[in-house]
Amino acid sequence: MALNPSNSPSPDTELVDETAPVCVLVFNASDPSGAGGLSADIATIASVGGHPLPVVTGAYARDSAKIFEHFPFDDEAVAEQARAVLEDIPVSAIKVGFVGSPGNLAAIAEIASDYPDIPIVCYMPDLSWWEEDPLDQYMDALKELVLPQTSVLVGSHSTLCRWLLPDWSNSRSPTARDIAMAAEALEVPYVLVTGIPLPDQFVDNVLATAQSVLGNSKYEMFDATFTGSGDTLSAALAALVASGNDLGLATQEALEYLDRSLDSGFRPGMGHFIPDRMFWAQPEPEDEDAEAAEPLTELDADTQAIEGFVMPPHDTKH
């Protein structure tokens, strides 16, 4: 079953070329290293066939290994950027990354409430580099303002556990369903939990609701430290949802795209590796064998196919 098509209230929607790329509105910070942030979103969305509409919410001072500082934009500047394109261009999905301040979260929530039929993919990065007071204020605002309008929450197992289940006392590690139940209490219908540790150097990535595990994809861990994986995955998911794919198919394809990006990853500086989001544009080695023509990934016996699911509209007003 397909997700909601783009129906943002632009007066000129009927004039849009139906063969043109779908448009994805992105709220994220500028990352000068190109590892994550808007750099990752723009490259990823374009790579999977969408047109990015990047709204700058602030800027990092960072290199490929470490975040030194973040400088948030004024919330009015963020709102005006987004309103300008929304009143002109039909938007098929929204991605929310790290936006730097509670004020920016409030602006995004207010804008999103005016477009309840546009699905929202919210990515929760690791913010352990930030000071405790601004981090707590940011997380409280995200829970109160943006999550009630979020269609899919994306994050690593470790990050989502620390944030959504801070008082977890069970001897076993939280499952994706445990995380989904905590997210449902904040009105989030779906979670995509990545990097769940498995034996033999494998990790699982699980799409879940509070009621059930909807599907999973298991991958072997890479022998490298990557930066920008979460932004890549969430941007790909937003673009694939925007293209009209149901959530199950979009999730599977986004995970496959990330796996290929990591497999082709590179180390631009002295820090971490980053995904090559344009891996498909690189020339193939002359001795490339026939395996290159095989499907991106094949499900093994431990991987459950992800079926299609419909995202409900978000209609919370702020």
What's the gist of this structure?
By secondary structure, the chain is α/β, with parallel strands linked by helices. The protein has helices spanning 37-47, 75-86, 102-113, 132-146, 157-164, 176-184, 229-242, 247-263, and strands spanning 23-30, 51-62, 67-72, 93-96, 120-123, 152-156, 190-198, 202-208, 213-220.
Q: What features would you describe in this structure?
A:
It is an enzyme of class 2 (transferase). One of its GO terms (molecular function) is hydroxymethylpyrimidine kinase activity. Residues 31-273 form the Pyridoxamine kinase/Phosphomethylpyrimidine kinase domain. This protein is α/β, with parallel strands linked by helices and 318 residues long. The chain has one domain: UDP-N-acetylmuramoyl-L-alanine:D-glutamate ligase. It is built from 8 helices and 9 strands. The chain has a 9-stranded mixed β-sheet with strand order 3-2-1-4-5-6-7-8-9, with helices on both faces. Strand 5 (120-123), helix 4 and strand 6 (152-156) form a beta-alpha-beta unit. Helix 1 crosses helix 7, helix 3 packs parallel to helix 4 (132-146) and helix 5 (157-164) crosses helix 6 (176-184). Mean pLDDT is 89; it is low at 1-11 and 292-299.
